[in-house]
Amino acid sequence: xxxxxxxxxxxxxxxxxxxxxxxxxxxxxxxxxxxxxxxxxxxxxxxxxxxxxxxxxxxxxxxxxxxxxxxxxxxxxxxxxxxxxxxxxxxxxxxxxxxxxxxxxxxxxxxxxxxxxxxxxxxxxxxxxxxxxxxxxxxxxxxxxxxxxxxxxxxxxxxxxxxxxxxxxxxxxxxxxxxxxxxxxxxxxxxxxxxxxxxxxxxxxxxxxxxxxxxxxxxxxxxxxxxxxxx
Length: 231
Fold this sequence. Notes:
Elements lengths: L7 E12 L2 E13 L4 E5 L6 H8 L7 E6 L2 E2 L5 H11 E5 L10 H11 L4 H14 L15 H12 L6 E5 L7 H18 L2 E5 L11 E6 L2 E4 L4
Parallel strand pairs: 3-8, 3-9, 6-7, 7-8
Antiparallel strand pairs: 1-2, 1-4, 4-5, 9-10
Helix pairs in contact: 3-4, 3-5, 4-5, 5-6
């Protein structure tokens, strides 16, 4: 894909919960274009709609209005199976709570998306090894999550998000459970991946650390997304 072609687009995207007369508008008329090699940071208070927006962008939730396109494909027009395939192939997710499977080793956790994609075992192992080396955890490949620090667990989660070579990674409060020093290390790692892997990353966060690395900073308030105020 061209460096100028959008990997991800939202057009007049909206999400409403509840029933007429008792509605909660979580996301209002969001327009967003995400291109390769970019880091977009979305700030905003809790309850502003950041997580809902990421879920809509990643196809985990259905919009009430508007359009989401991933690699030019309108997610709403896809079957459930096609939608799952698009998410698996083109979008990676990083969560605040890491989301690792406790009984699996770091390497096995990284391999989970590859198993779902029916990748051959030898290729899974090779890809897992490469990715854990990339995030600086090669020597910890056999360790289970409880044997890893919070920062190490998030590095495993980042490696897992990269497993199927997605064009876009959506990160929801990736430093939310980390101390400030470890959080800063994770943000530097994420920013480095934007440059080295030419992927796009959208980060929703309260943490000011990602702002220094962002190509664009947006603020969400009451479901409305807008450029963050200067300063």
